[in-house]
Protein: Collagen alpha-1(XXI) chain
Organism: Salarias fasciatus
Amino acid sequence: MLLLWSVWSVTLLLLPPPPLEAAEDDVRAGCSTAVNDLVYIVDGSWSVGFSDFDTAKQWLINISSQFDISSHYTQVAVVQYSDTPWLEIPLGKHQGAAELIQAIRGISYLGGNTQTGRAIKFAVDHVFSASQRGSVAKNHIAVVVTDGKSQDDVVDASMEARAQGITVFAVGVGSEITTSELISIANKPSSTYVLNAEDYTTIDRIRDSMEQKLCEESVCPTRIPVASRDEKGFELLVGLNIESKAEKVPGSLLSETAFALSASTDVTENTRDIFPEGLPPSYVFVSTLRLKGASAKLTFDLWRVLSKDQEVQAAVTLAGRSRSVTFSTTSVTEKEQRVAFKGFQDLYDGKWHQLKLLVRPRLVAAFLDDELIQEAPLDPAEPIYINGETQVAKKRGTDVTVEVEIQKLRLYCDPHQSDRETACEIYSVVRRSVSSEPNRGGRGGRLQLRGRSTRAARPARTHGFPRREGKRRPAGTRREAW
Ligand SMILES: *[C@@H]1O[C@H](CO)[C@@H](O)[C@H](O)[C@H]1NC(C)=O
């Protein structure tokens, strides 16, 4: 019997995976399923050295691990360069991670001078354009890893790359690099697209940051104009058509407009249209809203993403009775994980407030009007199902819309936007900041506040420990580790 059972399980393991077409509808979307053409352009000049070159290869393997390597999702190419560029791995040559890892490990070090501009031009002219799947790839990303100053010009080649819609990251390793050169190689802003490592032995320290950035690039195609810069993210008032579905009402300040949702408003859209590539592993959820009357007492999802089977993929739930805010997300070990934050008294007082959640792979922090209310650990989350609907202001577990006024509803992909996104649209915050800094050049309130409050580090208020709950889910659904 035991033997029969193990034969049966081995057979199960050997069965081929279901064809993609059939499973299409049930696919989870996230970084791993982004459709990228990703080209690594790696410095193989003499200054790097054999052992550091091996480290660089391992680093490339590491930062590729969040992607599903296949002709459907991410394809990787590697160009090594010194005096001339050398196509080590063409796009789409290797299907599957194991094969790709082996191929990267097998690259042998060239040695020579550093002609970075030439290598970038080569990637633009011959590598991206030779992708077997043509224009299917949604994102074309180049990562240039170099340890020194280029002996040729990098500006023209980099401009050409951008003109072709290729996003270029520049990774400088060691002290010989010229920052201005990295800045001209990379896309703008350089705070996003230029990375630095002290040397190859510490390059592992910028792994998380590189992975996060590659992931943002893959799943956050849209940009929201904020102050003087464009932030990658999702403007949900527009994406979910709230502007055309709800009535316009005055916002928190004279200069602001908000939207009043009534019981007959239905803000529901297909998740596939809103988050076609899923959610990034880190993001900032920001909403400026006013809860009046019944909405201050009900339990409802301010924002939620449901699967086709009505399972919560992500949600921010408000509960006036318990004065709490609950964040729900997926989990690699359970069906759903929830973190309940207490201490949101003010949110339910009938006035305008800004609610902000900073979501990181292992941590979620909740803010009200710029003050940290609480933070709590998270289990690793899984990519979300995008086959269901994304909704706003729905009573928990129902399709009933709760009456609420919403002025802002955004998801920023860069977690650092949490520091920049201040609650300057909230009157009490403006007042608080002004009174704490009286005579500052006598300029208009809002502008000076913007800069000020990003630096303002108020002591964190915490209110007890958050509660975590979760439903177990069958084992065996974990993603394969590298
Ligand atoms: C690659 O990842 C492994 C496992 O996390 C780590 O031990 C190693 O230091 C990383 N290497 C580089 C060069 O990033």
In short: The two ends are 34 Å apart (CA to CA). The domain at 224-435+446-472 is CATH 2.60.120.200 (Jelly Rolls). The first strand starts at residue 28 and ends at 29.
